[in-house]
Each structure stands twice: as C-alpha cells, then as structure tokens.
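Quick review question:
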C-alpha cells in the first residue's frame, strides 16, 4: 500500500511539473506574432555630427582625407561599471579631460548573456550618446579569449559560440548602422589556442571566419572598420604576409604587452626589431590599432605575465608606434583591472596612468 501511494504521488508530481513546463514555455512564445522586429539606434539623440573614420591605404583618415590616429583608453565592461555605480557621463568627461579621442568597450560574452541584447543595447546607447556629446569615438570589442573555431575558451567569462558571435555582430551592425561615433568593430578580442589546450589554431580557418563576420557586418553597414586580431593573444600578425584577410576597409589589432617580445639583450633596438618582425610590419600596408597595451611593476597591483615591466616599455612602445602611425588604446581605466591606469575612482593616476595621460594630453 505504501509503495502504491508513493508511486501515485510521483505520477502526480511528474504531471504537475509537465504542465508547469508546458505553460512556462507557452508564456515565452505566447503572442510571438506580435513581437516587433529589432529597431535601429535613434540618431536624433546625438548632438554632434561626427566625421566617419575610414581606411585609406595603410592609414585611417577622416572625411577630408586627413590622417587620423585613435588615442584613448579601455574601460572595464560597461555592465561591471554599471553594477559598481561608475557608469556615467562624468566618467566619459574624465576620459575626455585626460585627452582620449576613443574609448574601447570590452563586452564580455558572459555579460552579454546575463543582460540579454535588448538590455545591453541600452547600455551601449548611453555610451554612444555620451561619447558623441564629447566628440569621442567608440570601439566595440567582443571580449572573448580562446579559439572560436573550436569553441574552446580561456575562462567561463569568455565562453561563446560561433552562432552567438555571428548573431552579436549581426545585431550590433544593424542597430548602429550609419552611427559615426562607433568607428571600429573589434571582431574577437584575443584569439589563442593556449598552446594547443584550446585546439590547434589554423590561420585558414581563422581568416575564413573573420571574412564571414565582415560580410555580415558589411551587409548592414559599410561605414565601420572591422578590426582583426592575430594569434598568440592578439600579438602575431605574421600569417597576413602570405594570407591577408581578403576584405577591403579593414584594420589589424595588436596587443603588444611588454613581455611578449623576449630579446636576449633588452635594448630598445632589439625590442623594435622583434616588434617589427611579428606585427609592426603590417603598418606598411594596413592600419594597425594597438587596442591593448600597458605595464605594471613587478610588485604592482595585479602584476602578471605578460604586463610586468620597469617602465622602460612606455617610451619605447610610443616611439615605435608614432613612427608607423599606429593608433593605441591603453588598458585599463579601472582601479581593479590590471594593468590599471587609476588607483581609485577619484582618478588618481598609477605609474602607467601618469605616463599615458601625458601622452594623451599632448594631442588635445
């Protein structure tokens, strides 16, 4: 008898759960025929008519054909900043005061998934409005680390899929088509196979997937600059010597942190020679944007490979990039994400923050 009652109870529970699941699924699709199509960004909210930045040969130029160099900073993921009550116009005003003409938004897949695209678009919309009001540009960065063709990634915060990545750029390029403030789409932050731990990187596959992403973007908007990274965590561009990405209007990204180059003798010329051979050469034929760079002392906050340096890196990398018209965006304007540019939310500069602030203000 006891067994019969237990079995009956289980059957009732299973029935109730099945009904709940069916009704819950129904609530998600109820009235699906009335769900509107996605909308584009309302440009009437913008106060400045900014020039589109375009690719001309190996340079970035404005609409008058004048060479344009992006000089700016990375902020933390906007969702992180919003959660910490630091997402505001005043943050962008501080960046403008430092001399930045561009802000990179590192959008992590986990952050995008947590919010959903409609909610995250509200955050990006705010960035567009604030940046436009201050005549600054934006780089939208799909901030994943790993090897997308194999869908293997360095940490759960970077986990994504090919489908999600394509959908992200499809939706972003549709929403912000024709918005000059968003100048650059960085297709994938740092491709790496982690020494084979995330599969085996193959340039042909990586080249193909980037070309397909660019085709999706260009189908919606041809007024943006697709930015493509090389292997070794966005450091090695040597494969493009023989097999460049076969699309027009593109630029290449590099993250030349100090410990990436490892000369036997640490002289300026030896660093220059190594940088030139691995990524600097690309600036002869294409625009190059160093979308992450920076350093921290060995005993500094968050010191880790490959960003540790005694400070000699700063002047050297700036000289190298200036000689080649390479744009640059420092990591990171946040007191926690190392190498940090600020010590606190009073915007007290760190060692590298002080150095790069002087560099930025030379071009205000």
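Suggested answer, residue by residue:
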């Amino acid at each position: 008898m006891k067994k019969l009652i237990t079995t009956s109870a289980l059957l009732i529970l299973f029935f109730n759960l099945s009904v709940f699941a069916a009704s819950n699924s129904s609530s998600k699709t109820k009235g699906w025929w009335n769900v509107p199509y996605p909308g584009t960004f309302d440009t009437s909210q913008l106060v400045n008519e900014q020039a589109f930045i375009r690719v001309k040969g190996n340079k970035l130029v404005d609409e008058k054909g004048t060479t344009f160099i992006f000089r700016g900073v990375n902020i933390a993921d906007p969702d992180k900043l919003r959660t910490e009550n630091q997402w505001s116009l005043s943050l962008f005003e501080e960046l403008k005061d430092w001399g930045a003409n561009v802000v990179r938004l590192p959008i992590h897949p986990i952050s995008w998934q947590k919010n959903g695209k409609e909610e995250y678009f509200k955050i990006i919309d705010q960035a567009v409005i604030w940046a436009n009001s201050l005549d600054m540009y934006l780089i939208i960065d799909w901030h994943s680390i790993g090897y997308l063709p194999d869908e293997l990634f360095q940490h759960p915060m970077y986990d994504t899929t090919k489908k999600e990545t394509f959908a992200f750029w499809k939706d972003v390029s549709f929403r912000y088509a024709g918005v000059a403030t968003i100048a650059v789409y960085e297709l994938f932050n740092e491709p790496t196979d982690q020494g084979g731990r995330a599969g085996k990187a193959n340039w042909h596959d990586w080249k193909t997937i980037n070309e397909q992403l660019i085709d999706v973007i260009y189908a919606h908007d041809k007024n943006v600059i697709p930015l493509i990274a090389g292997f070794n965590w966005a450091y090695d561009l040597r494969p493009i010597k023989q097999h460049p990405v076969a699309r027009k209007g593109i630029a290449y990204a590099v993250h030349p942190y100090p410990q990436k180059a490892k000369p036997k003798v640490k002289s300026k010329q030896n660093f220059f020679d190594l940088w030139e051979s691995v990524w600097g050469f690309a600036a002869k034929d294409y625009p190059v944007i160093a979308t992450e760079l920076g350093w921290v002392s060995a005993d500094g906050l968050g010191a880790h490979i490959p960003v540790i340096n005694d400070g000699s890196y700063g002047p050297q990398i700036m000289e190298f990039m200036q000689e080649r018209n390479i744009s640059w965006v420092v990591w990171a304007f946040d007191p926690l994400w190392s190498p940090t540019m600020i010590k606190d939310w009073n915007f007290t500069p760190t060692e590298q923050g002080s150095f790069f602030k002087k560099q930025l203000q030379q071009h205000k």
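Why it works: The first helix runs from residue 2 to 29. The two ends are 85 Å apart (CA to CA).
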